[in-house]
Amino acid sequence: AFSKLPSDSFKYLSWRDIEQHDVRGNQLHCPRVRDAGPSEEELFLRGEEHSLKKRKQVTDTEKWQKKLQENWENCAELNLSFQDLGDLYQVENFKRILRRLIRVEKLWLVDNSLTDLSAIRLPRCRELNVNKNHFTSFKQLPKIPQIQHLSLAENNIMTLSGISDFRHTPLESLILKRNPCEFQEKYRQLVFSSLPNLKMLDGIPKLPEDFSPPETKFFYKMCTIL
Question: Gene3D superfamilies, alphabetically (predicted)?
Answer without folding.
Answer: Ribonuclease Inhibitor (3.80.10.10)
